[in-house]
Amino acid sequence: xxxxTEPGGAAVPGGGYGLRGAAFSAAxxxxxxNVAAAWRTGLDALLRGDYDGYGDRYxxxxxxxxxxxxxxxxxxxxxxxxxxxxxxxxxxxxxxERPVRQLREPAWGPEPAAMLAAAPDPPAAGxxxxxxxxxxxxxxxxxxTTVDAEVRGAFTPVLPDAGLGAPALEALxxxxxxxxxxxxxxxxxxxxxxxxxxxxxxxxxxxxxxNPSQDSWDxxxxxxxxxxxxxxxxxxLAFGAPGAGSVTSGGTESNxxxxxxxxxxxxxxxxxxxxxxxxxPAAAAGRLRILSxxxxxxxxxxxxxxxxxxxxxxxxxxxxxxxxxxxxxxxxAADRIAERGETLAAVVATAGSTDAGxxxxxxxxxxxxxxxxxxxxxxxAYGGGLLLSDVRRPLLDGIGQADxxxxxxxxxxxxxxxxxxxxIRDPHGLDAIARSVAYLSDLDDEEAGYPNLLAxxxxxxxxxxxxxxxxxxxxHGRDGYxxxxxxxxAQAAHAAAAIEAHPALELALRPxxxxxxxxxxxxxxDPDRVNAVLRRRLLATGTAVLGRTxxxxxxxxxxxxxxxxxxxxxxxxxxxxxxxxxxxALVADAGAECDVPxx
Length: 599
Fold this sequence. Notes:
Elements: E1 4-5, E2 11-12, H1 26-48, H2 54-57, E3 100-101, E4 117-118, H3 143-155, H4 166-175, H5 198-210, H6 222-239, E5 244-248, H7 251-271, H8 275-278, E6 288-293, H9 299-306, E7 314-317, H10 327-339, E8 343-350, H11 362-371, E9 375-380, E10 404-408, E11 420-424, H12 443-447, H13 466-501, E12 505-507, E13 515-520, H14 527-540, E14 547-550, E15 564-569, H15 577-594
Parallel strand pairs: 6-7, 6-8, 8-9, 9-10
Antiparallel strand pairs: 1-2, 3-4, 5-11, 10-11, 12-13, 13-15, 14-15
Helix pairs in contact: 1-4, 5-13, 6-13, 7-9, 10-11, 13-15, 14-15
């Protein structure tokens, strides 16, 4: 680029853009126009799941300029005339009376009566379908070696001597949609990886353009208030009243901060020290314990190591056949810790285990924690999104007794990554991490009414991730989220019933949330190897993204031979029973190809 011009007319070497109407160089103007056109056309289609011909549409005029879809008939909210809530793809419910439908029941018995969910209004004759077309493939074919070679061949060097200008971005826009794993595809079911809500994506682009930083009010202003509003309302959903909280990168960061708070309170109570000032006293070394389910998230042990407690501080508690923590075993483990003269720093319950979606008995866990003066944390990174549902929220009964809870809205919540929350019941619960720094928030500024944002996170520079959460929540409302979550639960019920009915497939256990564990019934080869190979075959051919895990052994101990299972993680509300049936047929076919003597 040759440079831009400031309002006064002075050249800006290497500029290309300025503020308040400064003239663009020809190259910068072309780039800006191309990016705007891509947003109006190709990116809109990309987010709706239509990848076909994306590169060809780059630069064309759009049929629609926003995510509202068909505002007047209620499918989305391009303006307020739709009168209804939208779904992840911009579709949704029109205003007025809405019929209800009975969702599919699983083979093992009826779902609760609350499975009744509002059905979308049928589109008017000739109206576009509310369900977007799916991407052609869930991921690129060829596997890691092929993708690595293609990317390095097309996009290196990262920093060429001479800039490429607009074609550099154009190449990415043309390449990535067909060469990235697409959570919008109904066969992308391997992980807690949701298709992003276009409303949230649009809000995220606004944040990227404005670039506020959440480490001081004079870098944020309105976005600091939005963050407070989001944390207050989600705290009230969890605890019944607003508390404190932090917008995080996800459950790992949330769990780390929660255990830091638990550690500090335990050390202050038992050893009368402030570890922030003096560190962990020698008398406490190796004496603090954390109790959690044997299938709890690995981030707890890693956090304990990083916090100076050591991974051995995390004591696994046996689980039942449904992967739920056994409350009697929890009480006995807590008593043994007390008998040894050790300190129980925290009890951590899981609300939605990564593999089985199991929700521990939260109220029972709370009672044990209170009896021993321990911090009670609920890792609800997966299940915490049920706070948005008027139907499924009772599954989290007892979360209100927690001192803290992790919630990931980039799982149930359909937010672009990252969108984690750590909710704290005590409004002053994060005071321990507050700092006053002269160049960010000096004391006289605080006295003058400028809030100190350093008390909200262990990070300093932070994106305004609460903006996209606010945008999507106000767009969909509780009824919109309830319908989306119910769709995913119904999919899990259908998939489980279909697996039970399929002679070549075996269901591991009934789904608790929206993950389904199963395997192909190998007749000739080793079951673990056959299932592992069929999964990689589906990946390599770009056909499907399945998860894999191992069932825990007795009491939650690591599983041995024969424990490998495939996993469906269902977080795409638009997926249909036909989509799931087709996916299971692909699994069965791949299994038959891989299950040969000697395999």
